[in-house]
Every structure is written in structure tokens, then in C-alpha cells.
């Protein structure tokens, strides 16, 4: 089957969930994009999330246009497992592909989806020219730390989702990795084996959950290389979040199962002050410092790139990039 042949999911009524999906065009893979020339010490990328209303969508597009001028290696759009969030994710990811010069990566989760629905979603992305997908098992809606239940006709693990996407056509797949271990893994060794399994299933790279201690990333890299040198050679992209609110980062850490090291917490708490409301400007300044310090050390340790959680704002990440001297990609 020609991987460049056109295919429209919803127009093929007699076969809505095909065995294979083809793309109207081929995106460069993330691994290819990371190997291209870039200014600064390493490439960078940015994560967006689907906006909940029109005002939030306008804010997202303002950030998109700012980042577009900085030429990130790629951008990713997180995924909501149900209803309008899922549909908005697909629509905006398609717009990023068609209407900007950015390279979008579409997130896809197994939560609450049958295999047929997952195939349909991959087909939707393919029909919009998207061949880069981040395959995630995903968290239960409403309670990310709650019990995870497989859809009766779905898949159980991210490695199954990787295989499903790869079997559907000429797709490039990435996965998530967890410097502190996934909160459902009994220990770090088990978590490392799960990451190796996802990479062996066909994932070409992984993007880490946000973390606030570079040692977490370095020890994950060590464990991965020790467990499987071949898979350990694939890009392990660190996820960085410039903190702009103590309350927000505490909530995100609570929902993700990650942690804030004591020394980082002390710096942020001191900046927040003792008033009834945190001093957002002071917290933001410390957050920019922390993200810059972490990024500098990660670059010194030889990371392939940096991936910034933007929260759909451009300014904080832009300031970190400016300090790092890595805000323009060479054409």
C-alpha cells in the first residue's frame, strides 16, 4: 500500500475501521527533526493542551504564533479522552499541520476507547496529514491517580497502543517516560522494564513527565541504557515546566504523582511570601531561574533536546529559551 496515497476515514462507509491507514503526506519524524541543524546547544519543542472555550483557544493561537517565529523542532497537543475535548484536540492538531509551519505531534490515549475507536482516531489524524503520534495509556478522567480500567474492547498497555498505531501504517510513534517512576509501578526497575517494552514495540523516542531534579532524569537514562543499550540509544527527551504559580505546580504535581524536591519547594515558598495571595511575579522569577538552571545542566549532560510544557502561554518559555540562546532553528 502506498504510504502517500490519500485516504478519508469518514468517506469509506463500507470499511470505517480499516486494517491499515495511509496519509495524504508524510511528516518528517521527530528523530529526523531532532537531527536537523539548529541554533543554540540543542533543539527544543513545546507542549500545548486543548483549550476549553473560545477565549482559551484565542490565547492558544497567540502562543502558537509566537512559538512559530522561534522554529521549535516540533509541538505536541495533549489529548482528552472524551467528548468535546477529544474532538477539539483533533481539530486543532489538524490546524497546526495545515495552517502553520510547525510540526505537530498528536497525543493518543487508550482511556475509554475501543480498538475500533482508536483506529478511527488514528485515521482522523492521518487524514489531516499527521503521521507523528505520542501513544499513551492515559489516566482515568476525573481522578488521574485513581484505578485504571481497560475498555472491554480496548488495549491494556501503552505498548499495545504503540503496536496498534504502527500496524496501521507509516506512522512515527513516541511514548511517555517517568523519571521518578510511574505512580502505578511498584518500583523503578518495573517502570524501566515497561519503558523498554514500549520502545521495543516500535516507539522511536520518549518524552518524560515533568520533573524538578535533574538527577531523576539522569538515573532514568542510566537505568534504560543498562536494561537495553539499543533502546537506551533512542532519544529520551526531558519535559520541563517553567513554574509561574506555586499553587498551580503543586496541583499538577499532585495529579501526576511527581514530586517537588525540598530545596525547590523552599525557593518557591519563599518567593510566594506570607500574604493571603502568593506573589506571582516573585514565584515566576524563581520558576524561570529553576527552568534555566535545569536546562543548562541537562544540556551539559548531553540531552537530545528539551520539551517545554507551555500551559498555552509563550512568555515564560520564551524567557528560558532566550537565556539558553536556543530560540531560533536554522532553516
Automatic annotation (TrEMBL):
Keyword Oxidoreductase: yes
One function term, GO molecular function aspect: FAD binding
Keyword NAD: yes
TM stretches of this protein: none
Pfam families assigned to the protein according to its UniProt record, in alphabetical order: MTHFR
Enzyme category, top tier: oxidoreductase
Biological process annotations from GO: methionine biosynthetic process; tetrahydrofolate interconversion
Record-level GO cellular component terms: cytosol
Pathway: One-carbon metabolism; tetrahydrofolate interconversion; Amino-acid biosynthesis; L-methionine biosynthesis via de novo pathway
Cofactor(s) listed: FAD
UniProt KW keywords: Amino-acid biosynthesis, FAD, Flavoprotein, Methionine biosynthesis, NAD, Oxidoreductase
Catalyzed reaction equations: (6S)-5-methyl-5,6,7,8-tetrahydrofolate + NAD(+) = (6R)-5,10-methylene-5,6,7,8-tetrahydrofolate + NADH + H(+)
EC number, UniProt record: 1.5.1.54
Family: Belongs to the methylenetetrahydrofolate reductase family.
PANTHER family cross-referenced by the UniProt entry: METHYLENETETRAHYDROFOLATE REDUCTASE, METHYLENETETRAHYDROFOLATE REDUCTASE (NADPH)
Stated name of the protein: Methylenetetrahydrofolate reductase
Organism (species): Gordonia jinhuaensis
Lineage: Bacteria, Bacillati, Actinomycetota, Actinomycetes, Mycobacteriales
Amino acid at each position: 500500500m502506498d504510504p502517500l496515497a490519500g485516504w478519508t476515514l469518514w468517506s469509506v462507509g463500507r470499511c470505517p475501521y480499516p486494517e491499515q491507514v495511509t496519509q495524504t503526506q508524510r511528516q518528517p519524524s521527530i528523530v529526523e527533526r531532532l537531527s536537523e541543524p539548529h541554533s543554540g546547544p540543542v533543539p527544543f519543542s513545546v507542549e500545548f493542551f486543548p483549550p476549553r472555550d473560545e477565549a482559551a483557544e484565542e490565547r492558544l493561537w497567540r502562543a502558537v504564533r509566537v512559538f512559530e517565529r522561534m522554529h521549535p523542532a516540533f509541538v505536541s497537543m495533549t489529548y482528552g479522552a472524551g467528548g468535546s475535548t477529544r474532538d477539539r484536540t483533533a481539530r486543532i492538531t489538524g490546524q497546526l499541520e495545515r495552517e502553520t509551519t510547525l510540526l505537530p505531534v498528536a497525543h493518543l490515549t487508550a482511556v475509554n476507547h475501543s480498538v475500533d475507536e482508536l483506529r478511527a482516531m488514528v485515521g482522523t489524524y492521518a487524514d489531516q496529514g499527521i503521521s507523528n503520534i505520542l501513544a499513551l495509556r492515559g489516566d482515568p478522567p476525573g481522578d488521574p491517580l485513581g484505578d485504571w480500567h481497560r475498555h472491554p474492547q480496548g488495549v491494556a498497555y501503552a505498548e499495545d497502543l504503540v503496536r496498534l498505531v504502527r500496524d496501521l501504517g507509516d506512522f512515527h510513534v513516541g511514548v511517555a517516560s517517568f523519571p521518578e517512576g510511574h505512580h502505578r509501578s511498584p518500583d523503578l526497575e518495573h517502570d524501566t522494564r515497561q519503558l523498554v517494552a514500549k520502545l521495543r514495540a516500535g516507539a522511536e523516542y520518549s518524552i518524560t513527565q515533568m520533573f524538578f531534579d535533574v538527577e531523576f532524569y539522569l538515573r532514568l537514562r542510566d537505568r534504560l541504557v543498562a536494561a537495553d543499550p539499543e533502546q537506551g540509544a533512542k532519544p529520551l527527551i526531558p519535559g520541563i515546566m517553567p513554574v509561574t504559580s506555586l499553587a498551580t505546580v503543586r496541583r499538577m504535581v499532585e495529579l501526576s504523582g511527581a514530586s517537588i524536591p525540598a530545596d525547590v519547594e523552599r525557593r518557591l515558598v519563599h518567593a510566594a511570601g506570607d500574604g493571603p495571595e502568593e506573589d506571582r511575579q516573585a514565584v515566576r522569577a524563581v520558576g524561570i531561574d529553576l527552568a534555566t538552571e535545569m536546562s543548562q545542566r541537562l544540556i551539559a549532560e548531553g540531552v537530545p533536546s528539551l520539551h517545554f510544557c507551555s500551559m498555552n502561554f509563550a512568555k515564560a518559555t520564551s524567557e528560558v529559551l532566550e537565556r539558553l540562546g536556543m530560540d531560533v532553528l536554522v532553516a
